[in-house]
Predict the structure.
Amino acid sequence: MSKPLELPTMDMENKEVLRRIEVGGDMLLNMGPQHPSTHGVINFLVQTDGEVMKRAIPEVGYLHRSIEKIGERCTYNGFMPYTDRVDYIAAMFANQGWAIAVEKLLGLSVPKRAEYCRVIACELNRISSHLISVGTMAMDVGAVTPFPYALREREFINDLLEELCGARLTYNYLRIGGVAFDLPSGYADKVSTFLDHFEKILDEFNRLITYNEIFIKRLGHLAPIPAQMAIDYCLVGPNLRASGVNFDVRKQLPYSVYPEFQFDVPLGKGEVGTPGDSWDRFWCRVEEMRQSCRILRQALAQIPNDTQIMAKVPRKIKAPEGQEAYSRIESARGDMQYYVVAGPGENAHRVKIRTGSFTAMGIIDSLSRGLMIADLVALIASLDVVAPEIDR
Amino acid sequence: MQGFLDQLIRNAGHDPATWPWTQFVYLAAMGAVAFLVINFAAITAGIFSWAERRVAARMQSRVGPNRVGPGGFLQWIADAVKLLLKEDLVPDEADKVLFRAAPYFMMVGFACVFVTLPFSHRLIVADMNLGIFYILAVTALIVVGIIMSGWSSNSKWSLFGAIRSAAQIISYEIPAGMALMIPVLLAGTMSTQGIIRAQGGFPWQWYLFDNPAATAAFFIYFISALAEGNRTPFDLPEAESELVSGYNTEYSGMRFSYFFLVEWGNMWIMSALAVTMFCGGWQLPACPRSASMPSPAGRRCLPKSPRWRSSPARRFSSSSW
Amino acid sequence: MTFEEIQQRLAAKFGERIGALAPANKDASLVVPPGDVVEICRFLKDDPDLAFDCLMNLSSVDWPKKNQIEVVYHLWSYAKQHAFILKAQLDRAKPEIASLEPVWKAADWLEREQYDLMGIQFQGHPDLRRIMMPDDWVGHPLRKDYAEQTQWHNITTTRENSLEGYVRLDELKKKAAEAAAAKKEVLQ
């Protein structure tokens, strides 16, 4: 029987000590930081006896770019491109969180058409982010082919968003008080064509992957997270809803123009395994894509016909020192929260971005006891962690 | 082949038993044949890699290699040249001798199989009485090579891949061997040429369709061959999503290409074995099997050798089950 | 429940340790003494009417002028769908506070991050070590008076200024005009 891995305490800050501990026959492996299937640069210290792990300790910080410190140096509008890089796969949401926080700080209200533009851009981004998530999850489980299928659909969205704001990945589309560009002419038709095509692809994807017997065997009953544990560890987004907690910021704490749309929130029910297992988290994301299509259709139909896309914003945005604002949005990866404290000049005094992936990493250690290494890969994929969100 | 060489020596006017250069001629011939066989194996492996890359790419709605040569056909030559020109890395803490030797173990294990694979009624390097037995024995060298490469890389991930791969190959050698025993029993001989001659040229004369036991054995052998070759769905040893590349992670350059050569070539060998045992081997329908001249068209090809007539296999032929 | 009601519940339970709600600075918040944070949070979590089952966010703000580091806790209740904000003000020279990890597991990583970036010692945390920065980093980057070390394992943290040697054209013209004006003065 081997002793459990001894983690360094506050005294032993040197990781060399950790590496020198090789306990009674168990291997101490480094999975990462460069690895095909940790989603970004994340390292896992895996204590294993071969295939079954005793523990997997995540180590993050390889992508730390001190974005929060940069927020103390940038103007409010100038910080917008940095928020893109907080989560470059779902960049519109990061933009929106920052925009809403600063608008709350300044007491601005955004014009209706701008809100609709934001919703359209964000829901398109949600679909593309979920496509990457489910594609890479299938690839991590071993099925290499669905990944290019998902990317092929994402290319259509990339083209649409490029037409809208000029960029394919880090959009910098939202501004404090509105959006940067209006929808181009003919955009509604292009998006509708894409949605018609995409909903059929979703059915095909379900037939090919989601209800595939091998996929179900691989992911069903894998690392089920009970609802109370999910809340305690502060999981958000599809991870939380897969465990059965009915909470979506767009429904419970509506912001922007989401109250005007009708859509469902998929909850995990343990359809092919335990409620809250990895298959549920996968299925939630697939169903959320379908709901995003619904929202998009309604948004395109209901968008007002005026042309105002920016509120009246002073040229130099300043807020009284010490005022703080907190914004919550439903990003593709869950409840992304911005905490802004205004500084004396044009910058913020403190920016804190709390992302869903950061707290999801905290749960991996306790879930990984007794899993196999292949299961660890599937677990990380099912939690949809992306390194830029964790490290900022 | 020795008889053929002796004939050549006699035609040249010397007596093979007493001519001092006989062994030299044998050696030279063996070298030439080995060169031909290895080249054939390598080129086949390359062409297979091209085929797989193109087909897999189309399945994944991509194109695959299409720049080098028509339809990307010369991509494998370009890759081979590139790998030849790469830096010859040996990791600092790796076991130097084993690290360098491992690919060669695999190549030997893989190339020796060609000795008893018949390409025609005379094109076989050595028609041993123990053909199949020899093949099963020699393919075990590949496992040795895999474990050597995983261990000597001094990397835990390579070791993982090597152990997984070795466990898988060894496990599936049992059903493969048992499945291969069924044609042996049907033919009454372990010699590959003998098993081929016990079948016929037409599909209904193949063991695959001739005998339900052989049909079952074919599918068992097929699945075991996939596992032995680390092919999907048994490709966990190369699971890129976990192990980067399994046992050949630390290899680069030509040594890396040896592993791939052995993998693709192994695929070819497994298929060749399946054809030999279950699908009549090199025989074509309506072609005589031992004549040096083609027979008139229309004459039905029945196995004529007395060995077949008297073998117990006749009892299991299509008319009696 | 609104912020006021929650503050009244807390005041009823903990007496004079609970002050008044800070005025709505866009969001109201409650400052609590650092020593009582664990007790208050446990009450907030366990009380059936409050039921704050989720620690949404834990951030720290550095106020060098007030000589304080403020730890801000954002709480959320999934059961009751209400939020609350707690603040604890720590001495900037020696920022120590009890860890909330026994109350909410999410505090584990959130507190590690604030220890790493701001230098707050969370007492009672099971595994307080750096999370973003390398283990042997010196200093806490998010502090206002943080000066970056010049090299880490012989990798320098500064780059030469790529604009060195270049002068802006308008500054060049301005300098030329000033030099000409000075020359004219001297000649005159």
Observations:
- Chain C has two domains: 3-151, 158-188.
